[in-house]
Amino acid sequence: MAESKVRQYVLLPFLLALVSALNAVLTLASLLPWFKKARHRFFLRVAEVQESNAMGKLWEEVGDVEYFWPRMKELWYSAWAEVQMVAEQGGRAPNPKLLRFSDRSECHLLDVASKGRPLIVNFGSCT
């Protein structure tokens, strides 16, 4: 475990540089008209809708210059959170905070578990 943590901390500056470069490329590319049209077609295809009115302003704002800094902060936070993740086979289960959809109250992941019903969680890239 210690070796993998050291490796993650060593790779963190490279990961931050990569997400910063990708954010800059996305922002600069959003200034090009052909990129905006391609992005619009991509969003329509992913959302499986036929008209752009259904997507609202979302497709226009992705990559927008005014969102450069908030997007940068979120990417850096995500990279830092990924370094902080600890999940090992046979180890303790992570117990992150969750937000309930019904009443917007906070709970922890293991609060959702109940006896006789297995709690199946897909950890994505953490596994």
From TrEMBL:
**Gene3D superfamilies the record matches:** Glutaredoxin
Question: What is an example of a GO molecular function annotated in this UniProt entry?
Answer: thyroxine 5'-deiodinase activity
| GO BP of this protein | hormone biosynthetic process; thyroid hormone metabolic process
Where is the chain membrane-spanning?
Answer: 12-35
Q: Name one Pfam family in it.
A: T4_deiodinase
The keyword Nuclease belongs to this UniProt entry's keyword annotation: no
Signal sequence, start to end: none
Name the UniProt key words of this record, in alphabetical order: Membrane, Oxidoreductase, Selenocysteine, Thyroid hormones biosynthesis, Transmembrane, Transmembrane helix
Function (record text):
Responsible for the deiodination of T4 (3,5,3',5'-tetraiodothyronine).
Q: Which PANTHER family does this UniProt record tie to the protein?
A: IODOTHYRONINE DEIODINASE, TYPE I IODOTHYRONINE DEIODINASE
Family stated for the protein in its record: Belongs to the iodothyronine deiodinase family.
Name of the featured protein: Iodothyronine deiodinase
